[in-house]
Amino acid sequence: MCETKKLSILGSTGSIGTQALDVCDKRGYEVVALTANSNVELLEKQIRKYKPSMAALVDEKAAAELKKRVSDTKTRILSGLEGVCECSMAKEADTVLNSIVGMAGLEPTLAAIKSKKKIALANKETLVAGGRLVTKTAEEYGVSILPVDSEHSAIFQCLESMNKKEELKSIILTASGGPFFGKTAEELKNVTVKEALKHPNWSMGAKITIDSATMMNKGLELIEAVWLFDVKPCDVDIVVHRESIVHSLIEYVDNSVIAQLGVPDMRIPIQYALTYPERFPSPVRKLSLSEFSTLSFYKPDYKTFRCINICRNAIEKGGLYPAIANGANERANELFRQGKIGFLEIAQLVEAAVNNGKSKEDYGLSDVLEADRNARLYVSEAVGIF
Ligand code: NAD
Ligand code: MG
Fold it and tell me: Which of 57, 75, 76 is nearest to 10 (CA)?
């Protein structure tokens, strides 16, 4: 594998997408395709700066508006999911960085794999919902999936010290605990969207910030780790680490533990996914350990933050249950942000969807899409909102 040279960025207007462009500036990568959902303003700016050969907006109206605005450039403007998939298959690109939020990233990821691109994956929902389908397809096409999620990048880096798979005992994912660390269920009953959006250490998109508050994010990451590193769910442990300096750890059979540390800045894992196996200087601030008098670690409060074990249960049950948990969460997360349900209802709805969902062991893309649709519908029906 060698360093990325030409790159397609899916979800380029988001938190990860814009930081990925910053890495491109520093490393001098050529950006050949850009996509977003509906942000015309920012995508226009990015097109003028990076001059990609194509760009896509999912929203048809927004795409038509963008097409008008950039008619003086050479960039071809596409629309809809098809347009996004076309960008992920862009001929010139050697790498696709997928930073789309949610399950909408699944088909573009599969399209990129089938076009034999190196995949830098931030879009964890792709692995959670697509699971074996994604890993099997990547294997079949001989494509590498490099993690961008900070915990998984940390595990990936720690695993470079591993000699044989049998030596690995467990993976330990760190979690910041989010804005509601230490709160009781009673105290969480009436928390507002504004309070839930205040993450202590990271500035991220709205969906993942709410997932961090419910700790669904750690549940999704547990499933992501199972697929990325081919480990059993029972071998993935979670520890709350408030400072987000230790990004995750691995434990060997001799009880030696290896960790990866750094300041909380996504440009480190983004850059490493693109430069692997090499390393280069980055614009990220140096970690000065003496600045931190204490690094703290706690056992998660599984009773209050129920989403972690709901996800653990879903991946242990296997089949389409992770896709159901993810779909239900995407809908419940959205309803919470719209002020239509309470914070604690998110976990209740995800759990009920998993308990009531139908699964099968051997699944293809249409099964995953159907499980996702049904889970969202289940949540909408349960709260009487369509
Ligand atoms: P964001 O909301 O800031 O950006 C999402 C991007 O996806 C935007 O460009 C948006 O236009 C695009 N998008 C939204 N809906 C879409 C759809 N239906 N189809 C196609 N494109 C769509 O989100 P983010 O915080 O950058 O997160 C992106 C992904 O990376 C998520 O899966 C998240 O879990 C993961 N991630 C983010 C961080 C972080 O620090 N932000 C860290 C680790 C992992
Ligand atoms: Mg993470």
Answer: 57
**Residue owning the nearest CA to atom 42 of ligand 1:** 149
* Joined tokens for residue 315: 């991946």
User: Measured in angstroms, how far is the CA atom of residue 100 from the centroid of ligand 1?
Assistant: 4
**Ligand 1 pocket: which of 8, 10, 12, 16 to mutate (most atoms within 8 A of CB):** 16
Q: Please give the Cα distance from 305 to 348 (Å, whole number).
A: 11
Question: What six digits make up the tokens of 248?
Answer: 């995750």
Identify the three-state secondary structure at position 271: helix
Residues 308-359 pLDDT 10s: 999 999 999 999 999 999 999 999 999 999 999 999 999 999 999 999 999 9
Note the ligand closest to the C-alpha atom of 150: 2
What would the two tokens of residue 129 be? 């919902």
Residue indicated by tokens 């999911």 = 81
83 lines ligand 1 (CB under 6 A): no
DSSP H or E stretch at residue 259: strand 257-261
**Helix H or strand E segment including 250:** strand 246-252
Does the CA dihedral 350-355-357-362 come out positive or negative?
A: positive
Task: Give yes or no for residue 36 CB within 6 A of ligand 1.
Answer: yes
**CA distance linking residue 134 with residue 131, whole number of Å:** 6
Strands 54-57 and 30-36: parallel
Q: What is the DSSP letter of 8?
A: E
What residues contact 19, with CB distance under 8 A and at least 6 apart? Answer: 266, 267, 270
| Ligand 1 centroid distance, CA of 189 (Å) | 27
Q: What is the pLDDT of residues 158-203, one digit of tens each?
A: 999 999 999 999 999 999 999 999 999 999 999 999 999 998 888 8
The tokens describing 379, both together, are 């949540």
Q: What pTM does this model have?
A: 0.98
Neighbours of ion ligand 2 (CB under 5 A): 149-151
For the Cβ of 266 lying below 6 angstroms from any atom of ligand 1, the answer is yes
> Is residue 100 in contact with ligand 1, taking CB distance under 6 Å?
yes
Q: What does the CA dihedral 112, 217, 13, 332 come to, rounded to 10 degrees?
A: 100
> In whole angstroms, what is the distance from residue 200 CA to residue 178 CA?
6
The helix/strand/coil state of 279 is coil
Helix-then-strand count for the chain, H and E: 16, 11
